[in-house]
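Quick one - inputs below.
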Amino acid sequence: MSTENLDISRRKLLGTVGAAGATGLALGAAGGAAAYAAGSQPAGTALASVGSTAVPFRGTHQAGILQPLQARGHLVAFDLAPGAGRKEAVALMRRWSAVAERLMAGEPAGPGDTGVALDAGPSSLTVTFGFGASFFDRTGLVARRPAELDPLPAFSSDRLDAGRSNGDLWVQIGADDALVAFHALRAVQKEAGAAARVRWQMNGFNRSPGATARPMTARNLMGQVDGSRNPKPSEPDFQKRIFVAAGGDQPWMTGGSYAVVRRIRMLLDDWEKLPPERQERVIGRRKSDGAPLTGGGETSELDLDRTGPDGKPVVPADAHARISAPEQNGGAAMLRRPFSFHDGIGADGTPDAGLLFIAWQADPRRGFVPVQRKLDRGDALSPFIRHEASGLFAVPGGPGAGEYVGQRLLEA
Amino acid sequence: MSTENLDISRRKLLGTVGAAGATGLALGAAGGAAAYAAGSQPAGTALASVGSTAVPFRGTHQAGILQPLQARGHLVAFDLAPGAGRKEAVALMRRWSAVAERLMAGEPAGPGDTGVALDAGPSSLTVTFGFGASFFDRTGLVARRPAELDPLPAFSSDRLDAGRSNGDLWVQIGADDALVAFHALRAVQKEAGAAARVRWQMNGFNRSPGATARPMTARNLMGQVDGSRNPKPSEPDFQKRIFVAAGGDQPWMTGGSYAVVRRIRMLLDDWEKLPPERQERVIGRRKSDGAPLTGGGETSELDLDRTGPDGKPVVPADAHARISAPEQNGGAAMLRRPFSFHDGIGADGTPDAGLLFIAWQADPRRGFVPVQRKLDRGDALSPFIRHEASGLFAVPGGPGAGEYVGQRLLEA
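Output:
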C-alpha cells in the first residue's frame, strides 16, 4: 500500500467520523463493515481492507475503548525510573503521544523504525494510555489524584501477583494484525527510554476479522459468548456511565474513563469436565448463541423470575449472568472490552489461559466494584476462575489538536 | 454459517483440488484469493470468507506443509505415558486423526465440545502429526526408524533446553483464527487421554489475512522479509526435495517430510540498536522489500560476485542471505514455514520473542543440517539470535480414505 493511498484512506475515514459527529466508534463500525480481498487489489479498495483501517488518535475519548475488539493485544505497565518525576513524565507522555499518533496512521515510529509493520496498514491499531494511583505520588500530583483511583477492595477469590498488578503507567495496544501490534509495543518500549521501565507485560487475542459472519460479540476460552449485556452507545445513559462528565472534581479527567484490568485465569481442565448443560447453568446462558436460559436470542433480557417444572428458577440463583445482571446491581454498568490470553502450560501443568478482563467505566465504585463484590459472594463460576493480577488506571480523555495525552493533568 | 453451507463449501473446495490434480496447495491458493465481507453476508459468498476456508485432511501429504502461512499456530510435543506402547499409539493416532478431520471440516470435536470455535468456520485450520526418534523405541518399531531421524548435530550457537526439545510425538496446529486454533489444541490435548502427556507447547503467529495487499512472504520480528528463497512448488525438483519419494528404505514415509523445529530467540534489544543499513548488511537484503543488496526485487537472485566502489562484495562475505543461499550449499533446499513467537518479557528483562522456525525437507541431512553448519561458522546474524529448543520429526504422508495418520508405520 502506498503512503498516498493511506493518506487518502485516512482523510476518508476522518470524514466519516466528522459526518457522524462521533468518535472512533463510527470509524470502528466503518472498519467492521469493510470488505477485504487478498492478493492484488485495485487501489480504490484499499480503504476497505483489514490492514488499511485507521483509527484517529485525537478525539473526545482516547482510542481503544469504543472500537470493536481487535485480533491482537498487548498490555504493558511501566514504573517511572528512580529519580524520574513530573518533568520526565511530561517528556515521556509527549514522546508516547507522538509515536502513537504516527503508528495509528500507519507511519513508521521514526528514524530507525524496526520495520516489523512494513507492508501492513495501520490495521485498526489503537494505543491507549492510563495512570495508576502511584503515578500521582511520583509526580507530586497527589492533589489531582481522583478518588476513583482508590485501591480496589480485596476479594476472597483474589490470588493477585503484585509484580503483575498496577503500575505508574499503563499502555493498551490493540490491532487486527499481530505484527502491527508487536511493532507498536516495541516502539512504546523504546520511547520509554530512561524515564520508565516495564513492570509487567501481557499478550492477548480475539477472533480474526472475517472468521465469523456473526456480529462480533466475543466468545471466551470457556466457549461462552461473553459481553452480551455490554452497555451500548445508543443507550441514553451510556456516555455518563462509561466516561467522566465535565464539571467533576478532576477536570483533567473530562472525557476520560477508568480501566479495571484483571488477569483472570480459567481453570479449563476443571471447566471442560462439566457437561455443556452444567456449564450453561453455571453461566445462565446457552452455549450455542449466548441466549438466556429463559429463551430468546443473545440480546434478550434474562427472565430472572421464571421457574421451571421443578419450581426452581430457570436461571439458577448462583448463575453468573443473574448475579452480574445490571438489574441486580443498581444499574451498575461497565463496558467490557477484553482479550483472551494463552501463555502455554503453567507451572502446575494446566493451561495458563483465560481472559485479560478490561472494563471501562466513569467510576469503578459504581461499576466493577459492586458487581465483583456480588460475584465474589455467590457466583457459580468462581470455582473455575482465578483472578491473578489486577490494575486500576485513570485513562484521560483523548488529546485535542496539538495536545499530548495527559497534558491537562501534567500542565494544568 | 450453517453446516450446510460449510458442506457445500467443502465440496467446492475438494472439487477445486481434484480439478488441479493437486494437494492442499491448490486449496490454499483458492483460500488466499478469497474475498471477505464481515457482517451479514449472502450465503453464496460463505466460501470466500476467512472463516469458511477449509483444508482437506486427506491427501498425498499432510495438511500444514504447503498451505499459506496462518495467522495463529500452536506447536505441542507429547511423550507416550509410562507403560504405553504400540497398541496405545495406534489408538491415539486413530483418535487424533478422527478429531483432526472433524475440526478441519469445521465440525465440533465430539460430544462435550468446548464450544470455543463456535460461530467461526474452519478458518484454514490444519493439524499435522509427526514422530520423534524416541517414538520408535517406545513402540518397538526401531527397525522402521528412518536414518533421517538421526539426532541433529550440535551447533556452536545452540543453547538448547532439553525440556522444550524433541518428544515422542509432535503436533502442529495452524489456523487463521486464534480461537479456532486454541479450540483444536485443547481437543488434541483431551484426546491424548492417558496415552500421552504434554512435553512442551509453544504459541506463534503470522500476519492476519488482509493486513497487507502484498503476497504473503513473511516478515519476521526483526523486520526482515523472511522466506524469499523458499523453493516453489512450480520448480521441477520441488517434490523430491521436500517430500519423501516412493521406493525408499522406509515405505511408510512415502509422501511424508521431515520437520526441523527450532525455537530461535531474537535478541531484539541488541538488533534494534543497529542502524537499518547495518541490519541490511547483516542480512544481505533490503529491509523495505527483501530485495538483494545487488538490486532487483524480492525474488531476484543475489549477485554474489558483484563488488562495490570499495572493491568489497556488495553482499558481504558473512551476510546471512549469502551463507544460506542454495547456490552456496550444493542446492540444499528446505521449505521454511514459520510462526513468530512472543511470550512477553524473559527472565533477563529482554523480549522473549523470535521465530518458531519450521523447515520441511525430504532429508534433513541434505537440507537443514548443511545450511545450519555453514551458518554456524560465519553468519553475521548469529550474534543476534539464539537457538533455544530443537526438534526433528518424521511427518508421514497424508492419510488415504479410511486411514489414520501413521497407519502405514504402525500397522505395516
